[in-house]
Amino acid sequence: MAEFKIVFVFILLPSLQHITGQTANQLPYYEGLPNSFNVQEDAEIGSIVSEITAIDPEGEEVTMSLHGIGKDIMDIVNEFGVVNMTGLSPLTRRLSLKRKLDREARSSYSFQLSVKDYFTSSGRESYTSNMYLFVFDVNDNSPIFIKTPYITSLKENTPSDRVYQVEAEDADTGMSKYVFYSFTDECKLADCELFQIDTLSGIVKLNSSLTLDYETRNRYNLDILAKDRGIPSLNSTTTLVVKVEDQSDQPPEFEKSFYRADVDENAVVDTKVVQTKAFDGDRGIDKPVEYVIVGGDDNHYFKIDKSTGTIYVNSIIDRDVRTDYFELTVQATEIPGNASGNTTVFITIRDLGVNGTSLPQVCYVFACVLHIMKMIMFSL
Question: A biological process (GO) annotation for this entry (predicted)?
Fold first, then answer.
């Protein structure tokens, strides 16, 4: 039986280094590169975010590049601000902003920063680092009042420890987001004089123990300032309208403090003498009123329409038997309610002449005759 022997033959091959004459490529890298950068949101276009340095161990040419959102917001530039991403190692370049940032729109960005060298046998080889760009806030937003317009109502003669609450928001962060409230300086000397506002909460109150009077004033415009704590501080203003609701606390008022009228003696019943007119003293309510004669006419020579306030002759008056004038007291009362106001009506009784013409009428005719005679005399 034949025997087989296995012979191991070891062949020593030259290393890749001996064949190519090159050593294995070492990847380029960034020297001292942090994993994040910070930039103020008000940084101008062209501002330098950071300086970066790429090193290739073999000293070859390297090329830097940005990926992801990074290439949309930054450029890699040289010391002259010109976009230039390629050069011999060590290569120092700068990250430069290419557009404005707004922290309120976006506060951070993640992107990749790569560097490549040129290795002749296997093409480009690269190193990539994941990076973050954080946008720092600056106080660039004024407080904004929300849930406007501010309009409220308050009953007159009613104390109130809370009239309304205003609220403002600030989109900034840190101390810049905190808002303090106050009345404007102009308002403190005018409409706001009767009110106070809490600095932190924005709650508006009436000053202690004060009430509002509709008849004095029925509307207040309170100008309110919201100011943040940023440096420099920013502010905005709004107006709180406070409407005063009328309450039934004022008696009726007559259009005139007194009335005068004349009526012929022996005037027939229902002859109109004069009309009085009153209105509700509470301007915002305007209740109807009823009229009544409450004094100066014990014998009821006159009567009054309770709805219109018109006074009429109620019985025939003989001037020679009765007095030649009356002083009536007319009262107007709210309906419903019992608030009332008075006025005085002076009525003169005109005496009739022999032919039934009142003396004032006779005098008027006589004056006309004299006037005509004078005109005739001057024309001669």
Answer: homophilic cell adhesion via plasma membrane adhesion molecules
Domain end marker among 106, 136, 166: 136
Overall average pLDDT of the 272-276 stretch? 96
DSSP assignment letter at 295: E
- 21 phi and psi angles, rounded to 5 deg: 75, 15
Q: Is the peptide bond before 90 cis (omega within 30 degrees of 0)?
A: yes
Contact criterion met (CB below 8 Å) for 73 and 98: yes
pLDDT digit string (tens) for 4-15? Answer: 454 444 444 444
Domain extent at residue 93: 29-136
> Strand pairing partners for 207?
none
CA–CA distance, 312 with 367 (Å, rounded to integer): 30
For residue 239, name the pLDDT band (cuts at 50, 70, 90). very high
Is the pLDDT at 203 greater than 70? The verdict is yes
Query: Do residues 133 and 116 lie in contact, with contact meaning Cβ atoms separated by under 8 Å?
Result: no
- Whether residue 374 lies inside any domain: the answer is no
Question: What mean pLDDT, rounded, does the chain reach?
Answer: 84
Residues 79-93 have pLDDT tens digits of 999 999 999 999 999
Same-domain status, 190 and 118 = no
Residue 369 domain-assigned (yes or no)? no
User: Would you give the DSSP letter of residue 191?
Assistant: G
Q: Residue 362: pLDDT above 60?
A: no
Radius of gyration of the chain measured on its C-alpha atoms: 50
Report residue 352: phi and psi, to 5°: -95, 140
Q: Residue 205, SS3?
A: strand
Whether the pLDDT of residue 248 is over 60: the answer is: yes
Rounded to 5°, the CA angle 184-185-190 comes to 90
CA separation for the pair 66, 48 (Å, rounded):
15
Low-confidence winner among 80-94, 322-336, 343-357 (lowest mean pLDDT)? 343-357
* Domain CATH number, residue 234: 2.60.40.60
Give the chain's domain count: 3
Does residue 257 form part of some domain? yes
Q: Taking the model in full, what pTM does it have? A: 0.58
Contacts of residue 132, defined as CB under 8 A and 6 or more positions apart, other chains included, come to 35, 36, 37, 108, 109, 110, 111
Q: Which amino acid is at 126?
A: S
pLDDT for 5 equals: 52
CA 93, CA 195: separation in Å to the nearest integer?
A: 62
